[in-house]
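Handoff note, outgoing to incoming analyst
You'll be picking up this chain. Sequence as last confirmed:
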Amino acid sequence: MGLHGCSATGELDSENFSEPLPWIGFYIAGASFLCLLAMAIDAFHGFRRQKLWFPCKFFSLNAASLTLLAIATKLPVDLSTSMPRGEEQLTKLSGTILICTAMGNFMPSLGTMEDSGLFSNVLALVILVITMVINIGIQMGTGAIYAFLPEHTIIMFFMIVLLAILVSSALTVPTAKQLLEHQYKKKHKQRQLEQQYDKKHKLALDEEVDKAEVFCVDKLKETVNKYWMMAHSSSPQYVLGRSVTCIASGVFCLLSVLILLEALVRTFTSSSSDFCSGQSDYKWSIELILISQLIAVGVGNIAPAFRWYNAISFRSLESQQGSPESPKGSWFKVEEYWIQRLVKWNKSPLPFRISSRRCRKIAHVSKHGILDACIGIQTAVVLVCKFVSLAPILPVSWLSTFLPCCCKRQRNLESNRWESEDPQGFVLHLEGEDDLVHLIMESGQQDTEKWIEKGRNNEPTDLINLLKSNLSEGFNGVAEFDSNQIPPIGEKPPNCWALPVVTLTSIAVALPYIDENTIRSLRQAVNEGLRYVRLIEANLDANESSRMKEATDIVWRGTDVYDRWLDKDLHKLVTEEKYAAKIIGRLSEIAKESVRNFTDGRVRETGPGEWPVEVLAGSSMYRIGETILQDYEDKFGTVDKLFQWLRKTIADILGACLTNLPRVISMECFCGVIEVREDSVRDAAYLLGEAETILVTLGERKFPDLDPDQMANIDEWRLSKLRKPCLLSPADNV
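Most recent structure output, in case you need it:
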């Protein structure tokens, strides 16, 4: 009996080795489709958000995309499988062009990486591309690739060029980030000094004028707009997307598509005698692979093509108008930041110690020689990219005359030149990008207004209605919800913004004879308000412990979703007790018992801020419940009056907390991490649009004379009410 896998003659039985290949081909087609899908989503997001430099989010240079790409391009590196038909030879070519397309799409994503990740990902891509070039060369020599030899040769050259461009860009990324970060910090400091000067100047004239500007929407828009300009123009993906290397990569990607189209036409117009007969072992899967890769190449070239076209169309407009910012000679000047890192490496000492003087000399000479060569190559790559990117300016300038989109851009550009120069001063750019400042400012202003408008379209309507109809003139409810006459059980936990709001809402939900729609509107208003409260607490660190936040979340989840306060069914309390005072009394007693059971047996070293969440929630319910009950008959008497007081108090607490929104919006504008800075300012613009009506409403009310840090603390508000300070009204001082 022969061994398993051997024939009767003892030789290896290889008849079934090729049977899984069609399913492997199906797997390759699936990987190609996933690459297509990721590139299509990035292109869609670029068009949807009008970011025509097409930032990479789903198809960026990382381990996942490189793994997909290695699977999708298996056929071009397959050295032994026979590919006799024209379609099969074309599939090898489409796989290599997919690599070119992927490199063109990867370019902006280099800006999002740290040095270590950038090095490892670029190195992995270098290995993949070099392996593919070598394997294709071997197949061209052995005859495994016998068709489209000129096309393969050109594409191999393009692959090497695109790889050199990508490595060149990767070398520049850390330097560009450092330069833009330095500019950002300088502008941020300048902006802070301007604000401090304005504040001191106005304070010398009239102290109350400065407080009137706290809720000035136009001032906040100006702040958001300037910080958006800085964040948008220094966004690493945008910097890479507008660079000459990224634009030049689009040219080579477009040329590779033209070569693929030419080969496709040749395949289906040539006679059968031009190709060998037979069929590959991949069989029916070849068609799936070819179709998926053709579509992937077509869709994947949208982003590189648009980057190139937008760049040269803008340059053509500048050349027509004779832009003084960037003389034509500077187009072919290699700016210092392109080679700054290599020069620094060249001047730095060796990173390791060599004892022998002769060996040290050889190492230094070798290092200088290698780095000098690298500087020369880097310079040549940048010059070639500039030439390739800008050579078609004249033809495109003729074309732009007939394209409405380009004419529109030209009109916008000309109109923006007459606008205020102030936002333009906050556009961050690298050396040689002076002529792009107007374009960056134009797109930045449009983006800011777009996000503010999106916020306006999603205003918290229930919260706005609650504040407009119930907010008291001096936010009196902040002091009224917790009476100092109520004796504490043990130590009194510090107050916070959110927990009293959800406790008051739980009491409102438990009241009988209240219209269901009114309760639903109040619940939605509190839901909307808590989102802003959480944002304020996160930014201003309003002395709220994690236990307080957890207690708030637990109480509100129970009230909002299940109509329960902790484990007590609020509707069941209504059926058992028909009177509001008795319902509140029951809740207060339950809460009091919970707190007392804990405080009687607790360890004294534990502060109130670290109490269990149930005890913190119970303490809040006990104090608010007893505050209501102590003057119930004289102050309320009916359920309707009590419910109105609850709504007013909730509105006052939320309104007092939301007076911190202008400060939070300003803080959201500043972000220390360059990779997420643009998203942070975008969120601030959206928040400003959402809260615009709220800020106007709050600006019409009187508020205590507190400094910004005191405004963030509810206990400071309560103390100010006890001191009965003079209340200030922004509306009175405008």
